[in-house]
Amino acid sequence: MCELLAMSSLRPVRLTFSLETLAAHGAASGRNRDGWGTAFYQDKDVALFREPSAAGDSPLVRFLESQGPSTTLAISHIRRATRGAISLSNTQPFARQLAGRMHVFAHNGDLPGIEHSEALAYGRYQPVGTTDTEQAFCALLERMHELWLSPSPLPALDERLNVVVQFAADLRRLGPANFLYTDGETVFAHGHRRLHSDTGELKPPGLHLLSRQCADANETVHVSGMSVASGFQEVSLIASVPLTGEEWRPLAEGELVAVSAGRVTGAITP
Fold this sequence. Notes:
About 20% of the residues lie in helices and about 35% in strands. The protein has helices at about 15-25, 60-65, 130-150, 155-170; strands at about 5-15, 35-40, 45-50, 70-80, 95-100, 100-110, 175-180, 185-190, 195, 200-205, 210-215, 220-225, 225-230, 235-240, 250, 255-260, 265-270. Helix 1 packs antiparallel against helix 2 (about 60-65) and helix 3 (about 130-150) packs antiparallel against helix 4 (about 155-170). The two termini are about 25 Å apart.
């Protein structure tokens, strides 16, 4: 199955080691060789890099590992195609504008029958490609539309969380539904079930979480293999499989966590 990675931090960092490790899982000789993408947030906008080819062989990935932009929020994906041709339009993560900011979505799993689901219908937001993931993203934006057009420039976290919780429940009825969604302020990560390569079983956990704090004020430090400027820092990483030897927490089946500025700000388990 595909693999996901999200990073949220208080202060800007570069993904470096984490992106390198994820890309290695997308080698041309491996299972996840059908495309890769990374979205680096810069305020309300994103720098989006995608290729419908193996990440492990990509000169662009090598460039981003050493020269990629510093950011406080990034989402990455490596693809194993299960629905839709191997093409740029079907390569995650997907990004769309809503209420003057870019929203980004990536998914790991399979959602058979989503095109016939009334609960996951869309209208204002149309897919460019042919993946079930992009259809799901359009359905989520359809639900978010009115909430983001309210007078408040940023809807309350509880309101956004409630929408994502119901959306996740509807996805789970169709199939494996591990996903990362962000509106540029908060990352919403939903762990479900994934195909585990060691056993061949479809089971939880679908995502893992690692959160770290650093208070070194005198020198450049490293958090989970990422270069971090001196000073207090909080970082959270969410990945399909642990990318370091640290103690990553597996998300429970159906658990949804919200992360902002490197800190977990909400968590719901059905």
